[in-house]
Design a protein that fits this description.
Elements (H helix, E strand, L loop, with lengths): L21 E7 L9 E9 L3 H12 L7 E2 L8 E9 L3 H4 L7 E9 L8 E10 L5 H16 L1 E2 L13 H9 L8 H32 L2 H7 L24 E4 L5 E3 L3 H9 L3 E7 L9 H7 L11 E4 L1 E2 L2 E8 L4 E9 L4 H9 L4
Parallel strand pairs: 1-4
Antiparallel strand pairs: 1-6, 2-4, 2-5, 3-4, 6-14, 7-12, 8-9, 8-10, 10-11, 13-14
Helix pairs in contact: 4-5
Length: about 350
């Protein structure tokens, strides 16, 4: 069975990252209890960062920003709905809070402060414009592919700053060629370089996968400069993204990390969306892959004095809904992604340029 990645299906559409055309809503990890010493706010914001929103609320009630809790950072250029927490004793002061870019939609008590990562995922609503004629059918076709197979889990452009080069300063910091005193700025830039290395690795794995679509394992080994036999059992896999010996997998959408032992067996579990492969965010206290996977990973691994991690290389797109408004040539789309995943990955596949 040959699986063709929709790179050859080029779609022309207009997407503007504005509050009118782009909405992100957090999906909480669990229901809030309705009692406790913390107050959880469901907040809608636009045209401001999460930090700016937290500052506006914390300054109003008279607390430090670090006394507030949040689950994730949300895009400045979207309409975003997210959950934050603060000590419940400040509830009365919120009654007088008013801000043109922030609206508190709901309040509920809870036992704990919200922590970073306490999310199931995010729901995205996107409006694509100038979708004319055959473009609508092409988008339908690619969406069907995405629903069946998923998308690569690259870090989004916003991770790398306005000019896309934050990672360069992060690299200089790691190499000792740049000095920055502020710890948070330093860690942000170094984190950008970690993300760059992950994306570079994933690009390499996508190249391998696409080569296996067209060539034999032996020819792909030569093209990728891998030892003979290192890709044995990869081409025959039914899933699009090909696993290799030594890959580190995680149960999906969250769970335990483990190494591939029987390639065909784990490939079948990956196809059923029970597990997914991971890539390396280099740093300390993180497990490295082995065998063929390590050969592909080691070129993007560096000594970085920050905690490393394993990140899903491939993710599923769920709860996909679409609506075509013919008279306006608008293609309205909504879907859910796991936490830490970027909507740009879906948009790139829809455009046909996510290699």
């Amino acid at each position: 069975m040959k699986l063709v990645y929709p790179l050859n299906i080029k779609n022309d559409f207009v997407f503007n990252s504005t509050p009118r055309d782009f909405t992100v809503e957090e999906i909480p990890l669990y229901e809030f209890t309705g009692e406790g010493e913390h107050l959880v706010l469901k907040v809608r914001k636009k045209e401001m960062t999460t930090w700016e929103m937290l500052d506006a609320i914390s300054n109003h009630v008279g607390i430090r920003r670090r006394d507030m809790g949040y689950a994730g950072l949300k895009d400045k250029h979207a309409m975003t709905i997210q959950y934050i927490s603060l000590p419940a004793k400040f509830e009365e002061k919120l009654d007088a809070f008013s801000h043109e870019k922030i609206k508190i939609l709901d309040k509920v008590r809870h036992n704990n402060k919200i922590r970073v990562g306490h999310l199931k995922g995010n729901r995205f609503e996107i409006r694509l414009k100038k979708v004319l004629g055959v473009q609508k059918d092409k988008l339908d076709s690619v969406l069907k592919w995405i629903k069946s197979h998923g998308v690569p889990n690259y870090f989004g452009n916003q991770r790398f700053g306005t000019d896309g080069n934050n990672w360069e300063d992060g690299k200089k910091l790691i190499e000792g060629k740049l000095k920055i005193r502020d710890r948070k700025t330093r860690e942000f830039l170094m984190g950008s370089y970690q993300s760059y290395l992950f994306n570079s690795w994933l690009c390499r794995r996508m190249e391998l996968t696409l080569l296996l679509q067209e060539f034999s394992e032996a020819d792909t080994e030569k093209l990728m400069k891998l030892p003979e036999g290192s890709l044995k059992g990869s081409k025959e896999q039914k899933n699009f993204f090909k696993l290799v010996e030594g890959d580190l997998m995680m149960h999906y959408p969250y769970g335990r990390l483990f190494e591939v032992e029987e390639l065909s067996k784990e490939a079948e579990r990956f196809e059923t969306k029970d597990i997914a492969p991971t890539g390396l965010i280099p740093g300390t206290r993180v497990k490295r892959s082995a065998a063929t996977a390590r050969m592909l990973e080691e070129h993007f691994d560096e000594e970085i004095k920050m905690n490393g991690a394993r990140r899903y290389a491939w993710i599923q797109v769920t709860e996909i809904k679409k609506n075509y408004v013919e008279e306006k040539a608008h293609y309205e789309l909504s879907f859910v992604l796991p936490k830490g995943a970027y909507a740009t990955n879906v948009l790139d596949v829809l455009r046909g340029n996510a290699s």
